Task: structure prediction
Amino acid sequence: MYIRYGYEITVTCQQPTALVCLLSVHDDRAGDIRVPESTFTMPEVPTSTYRDLFGNRCLRLVAPAGDLTIWGDATIEDGGLPDRIVPSARELPVPELPDDCLVFLMGSRYCETDRLSQIAWDLFGNVTPGWSRVQAICDFVHGHIRFDYQQARSTRTAFEAYHERVGVCRDFAHLAVALCRCLNIPARYVNGHLGDIGVPVVDPMDFSAWIEVFLEGRWHTFDPRNNIPRIGRIVVARGRDAADIPLINSFGPHLLKGFRVWTYEVAAPGGAPVQTTA
Result:
């Protein structure tokens, strides 16, 4: 299958302001791109790209005073399969973990392992280690937090989400990541595009957040917000939590004036959208 995805974001700055944007598909899907990403700014400004510490592709620019629109669009080929389920996947003892997994055991800005450790062990310490324990965490988070766009808050942490019991997809992801880490299971925060392929239309299009957990030698996808296998995830960035991979990091004040995201199946690269029924 082919999926067209893109974004149109407008910010307003009172003075020239440096920006770093994480908006492009991750390099590990580069081989699946069938219509290369077209990216432009309006007004046109010089841009450059670099890779951050986690291998994400970052766009660097200076927004002029006034409005700036950043627009991107591409088409990717996808296998059309739902997220892989591997019930037999085992946890690895910490001494057996690869070096690059260890950072994903540590507390981070939005995932306070020190404040959630006892809660995690009380809730899940007796659950069978491995896939079933991670799924139990996702089941808990999915039922514990009430999804509400109107209650979104960019500063909410995993500990606060646990107690407030409300949030958006990033809050579901942060709490699940933190609980996994408390149990010595490496977990990382992921954002990207996730359309409504294979499910009824449930929410306005937006960037989505989910998690990846390291079990038995590889990273596996889990989604505490939706908590069902989904089709057509397009990873944009991975990090310890949302602080590592904001869509836009501005080095000065800015106001978000416009935000539009699209993700939908097309019949062929450059073709018409596939008609689906809810």
Remarks:
- Residues 94-239 form a domain with the C8orf32 fold fold (CATH 3.10.620.30).
